[in-house]
Amino acid sequence: MQLYPAIDMKGGKCVRLTQGLFQNVKVYSDRPSDMARLWCSQGASFLHLVDLDGALAGRSVNEDAIKDIVKNVSVPTELGGGIRSREAVKNMLSLGISRVIIGTKAVENPEFIRDLIDEFGPEKIVVGVDAKNGMVAVEGWERVSSLTAEELCMTMKQYGVRHIVYTDISRDGMLTGPNVLATKDLTEKTGLDIIASGGVSSMEDLHHLAEAGVQGAIIGKALYEERVDLRQAVDLFESR
């Protein structure tokens, strides 16, 4: 199981939100690249970056911080938040980002994902599926669509998508444990690389995800609050 330490950026700083609410923000570092270097020193082999301001604005906002991270680490990075055009995808890949995560646009215009896969390849494009009670939420989680998470994943699979970041919004930043059943269900029904996001609070949660056959897990607040030891987690789950 691939582990992805999360670095969420707002106003150029490394922060964590609770349940995706922008008023529930806690700053962990004034310089996100310092956190990136810390996680890499503890064995991180892939980083998960989120431009929170970008998710709301619909365009990249924290580009300087993103460039700083890419310049300071040697591991691959994936980035989500406000990437809604071909030009934005191309720009992020040109900065050295390894994989770009598309959320809102995948719901509003699925063919856009197909075109991106055709141009950049399936290893460069990840679809972010954010769900509230099983229904997909968009626009920085501000609006809930009429699509189920499974429906969106199956459409994306038809278009060549291989990687999905699946977030249960109700659990994000709550340290209440991920939605293992829903993530396992998606993994088994779609056959895709489903990356669990939201709610990981302990090594036990990671064990549950690994036992469920989930391919990847994003760890955010649990790392920042020192509930998960990254070095130990990498040894346990990435080397199986």
**Structural class from helices and strands?**
alpha/beta
Tell how many strands the DSSP assignment holds: 12
Low-confidence parts: none
Shape: globular
Strand content: 25-35%
- Return the average pLDDT rounded to an integer: 93
Largest pleated sheet: 8 strands, parallel, barrel
What is the topology, as strand order, of the major beta sheet? Answer: 1-4-5-6-7-10-11-12
Output the radius of gyration: 16 Å
Order of helices and strands: EEEHEHHEHEHHEEEHEHEHEHH
Q: Helical percent range? A: 25-40%
- Give me the number of helical elements: 11
Query: N-to-C terminal Cα separation, in Å?
Result: 8 Å
Describe this structure in words.
Strand 5 (about 75-80), helix 4 and strand 6 (about 100) form a beta-alpha-beta unit. It is built from 11 helices and 12 strands. It is globular. About 40% of the residues lie in helices and about 30% in strands. It has about 240 residues and is of the alpha/beta class.
